[in-house]
Design brief:
The structure holds two protein chains of two kinds.
Chain A (H helix, E strand, L loop, with lengths): L2 H26 L3 H18 L9 H15 L31 H16 L2 H11 L4 H8 L3 H18 L8
Helix pairs in contact in A: 1-2, 1-3, 1-5, 2-3, 3-6, 4-5, 5-7, 6-7
Chain B lengths: L2 H9 L1 H5 L5 H46 L3 H30 L8 H20 L1 H25 L2 H49 L6
Helix pairs in contact in B: 3-4, 4-6, 5-7, 6-7
The chains are: A mainly alpha, B mainly alpha.
Chain lengths: 174, 212
């Protein structure tokens, strides 16, 4: 694949699935520095993955897979020895905090609580909740994680119970 | 709030992401980071190989120097030392080539991705745990041979040769012991916790049947 084709594909994926990438970043990195670090690592891995994409999976599933895999095996950088990368965006000024945002403050609070709860879950369970909230099917989740559908079901049930405890009062029928 | 309502609220985040991200800016930054990463890896390899090559050339230079002064035994010792360092350089290159081919890809399933990362960490642990055998011992033997031939050439009597050799050996052993300890510290402080973290992730992917 030529560089131009990769560039076009990358920009297209970014345009269509950036929300998904940011959700993964928020769910797995707490501080602005870590978020910036993880975001750039995910984008780097996504760019490197383009030549391997054969169109067998949906693009959203592919992007999810790369983003989650990167986030789950991502190792927090040791800052003193790390070259400081220029932050391309101030991730904390993104959705739910900007003036252009149209959703209510209540929704923002709910989403913030959900992110908080996901961060408290074990990493794998958090990833399943994330995918479930984004409406991925059991097949897609199993594909991303590399486990069976029944295994996904078991994990999702367990994760939902934990989420219900963590979000007590917010969710009625998790 | 029901789960469906929460899902809708959650998915409504998407619309606001598209407002402010400039794909061009992000793309340029990704390309810049990729180039920086590739160049850092390239120069790290160049530095390591250059250091080894410099040592080999140094030993070969010594051998020529001693040979023309009629110290054939020392010259031979230098050649042997150069060969031992060459072994370390070749090991380095071979290991880098093999590991580059095995570089974990993030577009596989999560299980495969964690297994790849774990294999990489295990390999690094193996390398550092065995640093004595592949990195320290070969040049160590080279230095001992060179040093032995030199002191033999000077004294040609067993007792002072042994004393001198023992002094040199102690110095080399102290330096190598320090390098060895540094490597073992890296295994304990960085690599083992990483290994445990990845193993625990892998276990949590496979052990759902016992937890409901």
């Amino acid at each position: 694949m030529t560089d131009d084709k990769c560039e076009t594909t990358f920009k297209q994926w970014l345009g269509e699935h950036q929300g998904l990438i940011f959700k993964v970043v928020w769910a797995y990195a707490g501080t602005p520095e870590d978020q910036d670090d993880l975001l750039q690592e995910i984008l780097l891995q996504l760019w490197s993955s383009i030549p391997n994409f054969q169109g067998k999976a949906k693009v959203s599933t592919w992007v999810y897979r790369v983003a989650l895999n990167t986030a789950l095996v991502w190792k927090r950088a040791v800052r003193k020895s790390k070259r400081r990368r220029t932050p391309v965006i101030d991730i904390n000024k993104m959705p739910y905090t900007g003036q252009e945002h149209t959703d209510s403050g209540e929704n923002r609070q709910i989403v913030d609580k959900v992110y908080g709860a996901i961060r408290e879950l074990p990493k794998i369970d958090g990833s399943i909740v994330l995918m479930c909230l984004d409406g991925l099917s059991y097949d897609e989740m199993a594909d991303v994680l590399g486990i069976s559908k029944s295994n996904v079901g078991v994990k999702l049930n367990r994760a939902k119970k934990q989420m219900a405890k963590l979000l007590k009062g917010l969710i009625d029928d998790f | 709030m029901t789960f469906d309502e929460l899902q809708k609220t959650w998915q409504s985040q998407e619309s606001s992401f598209k407002l402010r991200i400039d794909s061009d800016v992000l793309f340029k930054e990704v390309r810049r980071n990729k180039k920086h990463f590739e160049s850092a890896v390239f120069w790290r390899d160049v530095r390591e190989i250059a250091a080894g090559t410099f040592a080999i050339l140094g030993f070969l230079g010594f051998s020529v120097f001693f040979f023309y002064r009629g110290l054939t035994l020392v010259a031979l010792g230098s050649v042997l030392a150069a060969l031992f360092v060459l072994w370390v350089v070749l090991f380095f290159i071979a290991d880098r080539v093999v590991q580059r081919k095995r570089h974990p890809s993030r577009d596989k399933s999560l299980t495969a991705c964690i297994e790849d990362s774990l294999a990489q960490v295990n390999h690094q642990i193996w390398l550092l745990k065995n640093v004595f055998w592949w990195y320290l011992l070969p040049p160590g033997i080279g230095v001992v041979i060179l040093s032995g031939t030199m002191v033999w050439q000077i004294y040609a009597v067993v007792k002072p040769v042994l004393i001198e050799l023992l002094e040199n050996l102690t110095l080399v052993a102290l330096v190598f012991w320090g390098v060895y300890l540094l490597n073992q510290r890296a295994v304990r402080k960085d690599l083992m916790p990483r290994k445990v973290e990845l193993e625990s992730l892998l276990n949590s992917l496979s052990n759902s049947s016992r937890t409901t």
